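Reviewers of the previous submission asked for a worked example of the structure-prediction workflow described in the proposal, so we include one complete record here. The input consisted solely of the amino acid sequence. No template or homolog information was supplied to the procedure at any stage.
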Amino acid sequence: MKTDKNFPNDFTSWIETHHEIVMYITRKLQESADDVINNVMNTRGTGGIYELAEDWTDEFEEQNTDREWDGEFHDEIDFFCYTKNHNNNGNNAQS
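From that input alone, the workflow returned the following structure tokens.
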């Protein structure tokens, strides 16, 4: 974890988001698909997956600073992760 971590919505929100993103990544690693997650695992290993999960968590939290959730939290995280995982423009391997 980065030592200068910023929690835009508070630590509880960050860790809940991180948990959901890690669950998504874990499911996708079991599928062995041609996607960003499996590419990171194959090229950078477990450490790369740790960094990917942290980067995606930070980005999701930043995009949703001060947002009040009304039941759509899990849908939004799934859509965010799906979009990040299937972005084939080459800019998504790290974040």
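Residues 11-85 form one domain. We consider this example representative of the routine output the project will generate in years two and three.
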